[in-house]
Write a structure and sequence with these properties.
The complex is a heterodimer of chains A (440) and B (224). Chain A is α+β, with helices and mostly antiparallel strands and 440 residues long. Chain A folds into three domains: 137 residues, no CATH class; 87 residues; 145 residues, 2-Layer Sandwich (Heat Shock Protein 90). Helix content of chain A is 53%, strand content 20%. Chain A contains nine helices and twelve strands. In chain A, the strands form three sheets. In chain A, strands 1-2-5-4-3 form a five-stranded antiparallel β-sheet. Chain A has a five-stranded mixed β-sheet with strand order 7-9-10-12-11, covered by helices on one side. In chain A, a hairpin with a 2-residue loop joins β4 and β5. In chain A, α1 packs antiparallel against α2 and α5 crosses α7. The relative contact order of chain A is 0.06. Helix content of chain B is 42%, strand content 22%. Chain B has two domains: 119 residues, Response regulator (Rossmann fold); 97 residues, Winged helix-like DNA-binding domain superfamily/Winged helix DNA-binding domain (Arc Repressor Mutant, subunit A, Orthogonal Bundle). In chain B, the strands form three sheets. A five-stranded parallel β-sheet of chain B has the order 2-1-3-4-5, with helices on both faces. Chain B has a four-stranded antiparallel β-sheet with strand order 6-7-8-9, covered by helices on one side. Chain B has a three-stranded antiparallel β-sheet with strand order 10-12-11. The longest helix of chain B has 16 residues. The chains are: A alpha+beta (440), B alpha/beta (224). At the A-B interface, α3, α4, α6 and α7 of A face α1, α7 and α8 of B.
Amino acid sequence: MKLQLKFVLYNAISKAVIILAIGAFLPIITQRVVYNHIDNRLLARSDKILKVIRLGGLNEIMLDEDCSFGNYNIFKEEFVSIEPLHQMVNDIGTIKIENTERDFEGEILKHRVLSEAFLFDNQLYALEIGEGLIAVEQINNTLWYFTLWSLIAVIGISIFLDLGFSRFLMRPFYSIINRKLRTINHPTLFEPSQVKTNTYEFSYLNQSINEMMQKVKDAFLVEKEFINSASHELLTPVTVLQTRFENLIAEQNLPDDVADKIVESQKTLMRLSKTVKALLLISKIENAQYLKKESANIRELSQDVLMEISERLISKGIVVEEEWNSEYIFHNCNKSLLHTLILNIVNNAIKYNKQNGKIMLHGSFNENGKYVLKISDTGMGIEKENLKNIFGRFKRFHADDGASYGLGLPIVKTIADFHGILVEAESVKGEGSTFSIVFP
Amino acid sequence: MNTLIVEDEKSLSHEIEIFLTREGFNCDVAFTGKSASEKIYVNNYDFILLDIGLPDMNGLDILREAKEANSESSFIILTARGSVEDKVAGLGLGADDYLAKPFSLLELQARMQAVLRRKHGLQKNTIKVHDFEIDIQNRTITQSGKNVPLTKKEFDILNYLILHKNRVLTRMQLTEHIWGDILEDDYESNYIDVHIKNLRKKLSAFTNVDWIETVRGIGYRVNV
């Protein structure tokens, strides 16, 4: 999940929690405040009534014939009632305030009622003062809904603002990633630059990446210099020997045994030279000294390889079967390296094949949508325990017949890695091997 | 042909000199960039074989200097450093060819011939060998007007043998010429023998080809 989204989500969730809490507690709090007001009012009224009665007697308030008194306003919003009690109660003077629901001529109304028993002229009376709650509750509800919805609206707006702001805030981060890390194919092409930001963390990140890339770049350049020097130091003596042998073999009247020895020495030198060149090629690929700017049609490239190597196929009587289910253009590659990759695999398929054998080339997309070129042979196959070693450098081993796999497959592996290609080998001893080249 | 060999490795310079002298070139040698510069300034060379990894200066600077002085010489760069940039830079500065070390002397001579043909037209594009006419430009071989159908590699082998006529070429030299650097396992293979066998068969359908000689244990020679 994007950090930006996480920020926004965190903000939204924390606000929602606060609002839920407010939504839950607000009615309770407001109710308490409102009841408090009502209660105070009721108490004040009961005081007033009792004072009037004490000063002027019950007659001050008009009493009905049964010595009771009831007064309701027209909507029964408020009432006062005084009724004589015929029994003794033990809580004279205690004031009780509670919510009641009463039936007023078929209409059930909710009131907050203060009830109190008082003694007057040795007669016990019950005083009740009520105040309607409906209006209050309506106001409460309205207030609650209004508050809730406005808070929800605030959250909505703030999520929107957060999104925009965090995107703005994160912009230097993406600019660092895109400009510094993704578009630069290779450390040696890296140029340190500043990213426009006043966020400390981002400028720190940018600076750290600059420093790191500079170190990587320096290391690559040092390695490149080393490869060039090693190349010079190793290949110059080889050249001296090679040219000397060539001059020697051209001498007139060379005794046969001397000529044989020179040819043998040339072969040994050639082996040394090929090994050194293979190792240098691998180092140069790993040092990214090759460009990847071409596009190659894999079918055409494979057919070029087959054409180039056709004489070897013919001389071993090998039949090639091709099956191309789909065309594939591999972009941003180095054509000549890819050519070497396919050539090395096909050459092995010839070298380790039996006389009049078969080589199958099959190009198609696999179930993951990746293009796969399979090169199979009907050769002697590779032992299972050797299979994992065939791409390893210096994991040189010898097959039963003394043939060695040399550095051909490590070169294949290096070229594949350089292009992000996966090469896999399967083999059944005695039946043949299949090399799968899985393009990225 | 006046040739200057600019190479700090004296034994290599010596071997090149022996070979080219035997092939009829006049050779001069320079072991440092400084002496090379002076020699190029004073003398007029047809060929300058230039090692770019010189101890006192970059060979490419000598090339640049010479080109600025409108030198008519043909430059072939010899290098063991093998970085791609060097090759691009060398050819960009106007070198005629580029040969990576280790190289075969035969290959060097073949490149020099190709440069001559390309630049000065001094060499004929058709060579007559016994009864056959070889057109190097169009890569065809004919016998009294009739085309001999050779594969690309067969033509390359025959052409190379003829270019170095009267000299024994080993299987390795031939292999390296037709396959180059790509494959690393060819020094023991007998593909060359198969090619020569096919070549003889195709040519002998027209006329006797005993001028392609097998030199026991070593290789092949075209006698003219």
